[in-house]
Amino acid sequence: MPWTRERLEDVARNRLGGAKLVVVANREPYLHSFDGEGIRCTTPASGLTTALDPVMRACGGTWVAHGSGDADRVMSDELGRVPVPPDQPAYTLRRVWLTKEEEQGYYYGFANEAFWPLCHIAYARPRFDSDDWAQYRAVNRKFAEAVLEEVESGPAVVFVQDYHFALLPRLLRDARPDLVIVHFWHIPWPNREAFRVCPWQDDILDGLLGNDLLSFHVQDHCNNFLETVDRGIESRIDMERFAVTRNGRTTLVQPHPISIDPDVVAASVERNLDYEARRLRNRLRIGNEKLLVGVDRVDYTKGIAERFRAVDRLLQRHPDLKTTFTFVQVGAPSRVHIPAYRRLNEELSELADEINWRHAAGAWRPIVFLNEQCGARQIYVLDRLAAACVVSSLHDGMNLVAKEFVAARTDGRGVLVLSRFAGAARELLDAVLINPYAIDEFAEALRLALTMPDEEQEQRMARLRQEVATNNVYRWAGMLLSEASKLVQARPAAESRPSIEILA
Ligand code: F6P
């Protein structure tokens, strides 16, 4: 039976035994900001929020997140709660307020200057700073307090997201042994050798072993985690069940690849497509040439510079391709308070300028670099117009841009050029798979994509679309909630009540 929104609703309603669902993610799904006289509600450029919002709409419950919009407080009640989505409320967003120092140390500092480069093999050096670590710990405690308030005294499933909250499961477990805690780690887990440079590795592993279930996108990352635990901390590993037992409590470690709702993408792209397509071509001043498209947050793990260099190499090797295509790169600025990210925006603009200067012909330029956030609909229309979408991550947990591209191709055409080092490459086998470091191979893959016969495109795209339709986001959430429901049924009734003091 296929996974649908209705089937997921059924699991949430009937199989969780009345347990409340509380999601914890750093990023909020709806953000309020002042806009002239008024207040604007936007959604962030984040695969995580795009994937989880339809799940929460289906299941209801509470999403606990950092309230980062400048008008968030005005729009929330005294506890930081606001019903969302604003036009059709289906669940509660509980905002946690952080000071600038907390945000700097926990989010920019430890999460994104230490954990992020530690977990991604992109040859960026992690920066371990004890002040950042202190803020990371303090903010994990702050979130634990908010979660404990939200679960109240009843049974609950807490669904923790990502590397911002490695310590949270242990804090919750100590305060409420009865909670079912499931953690999804959206980025890769490195091998043992890479991880052991982290000065606080024991606390992190112990924190994560507060979970009942810890999940990664792919089996390799589960294996890396188990090996890290095996060599790093006192525990017993059961390789038959992929489970770790520490101090009498067991954490299951399982792969569950995240996905999207392809029907939402398809419905969005179909609406006024011709009109939107004309508008977009006019805005980007693109004629009838073919489009290659890239859509990313500007992040050094995404291989955007490699992508530009592959375009450069393609034109050096095949000058006859000049004016036949334009590469449109949407690059939403991200984490710009971190120097490496700020610099990357400038480096990419300079690189695009240099390549454009080298290959320009009349008004034609090979690369259009849109260094801004674009709305989801605009991106889907761009996907739909493209001859190919290029995803060249140097390392990526999954990459939902690849799946969105496939979902947007209701015409059954288009080519996906996909890095072998993105989790999505394990599922999307009919993509043209590349090593983004191998620029010659990458350039040839772009040529292949630009010249692939329609029939081959259609065959590949049909299989890709089948894959995304079957393994959709409802399946991802459904599998995780089904695991959670088994744990709920096996759990004795609450022995302890929320105790903020335990956290002190
Ligand atoms: O890829 C990891 C991740 O945390 C995603 O889960 C999320 O969509 C993305 O990074 C966005 O990051 P941020 O919230 O820091 O902008």
Task: Explain how this protein is built.
This protein is an alpha/beta fold and 504 residues long. It folds into 2 domains: 5-258 and 473-494, 3-Layer(aba) Sandwich (Rossmann fold); 262-470, 3-Layer(aba) Sandwich (Rossmann fold). Helices cover 46% and strands 18% of the residues. The protein is built from 19 helices and 18 strands. The chain has helices at residues 5-15, 47-59, 72-75, 100-119, 130-151, 168-175, 192-195, 201-208, 219-232, 262-270, 273-284, 304-317, 339-359, 376-385, 400-408, 439-451, 454-470, 473-490, 500-503; strands spanning 20-24, 31-35, 38-42, 62-66, 81-84, 91-96, 156-161, 180-184, 213-216, 236-238, 243-246, 249-255, 290-297, 325-332, 367-370, 388-391, 415-419, 432-434. A 10-stranded mixed β-sheet has the order 5-6-4-1-7-8-9-12-11-10, with helices on both faces. The protein has a 6-stranded parallel β-sheet with strand order 15-14-13-16-17-18, with helices on both faces. A hairpin with a 4-residue loop joins strand 10 and strand 11 (243-246). The radius of gyration is 23 Å and the shape is globular. The relative contact order is 0.12. The model has no long low-confidence stretch (mean pLDDT 95). The site of 6-O-phosphono-beta-D-fructofuranose (F6P) has 10 residues, from helix 2.
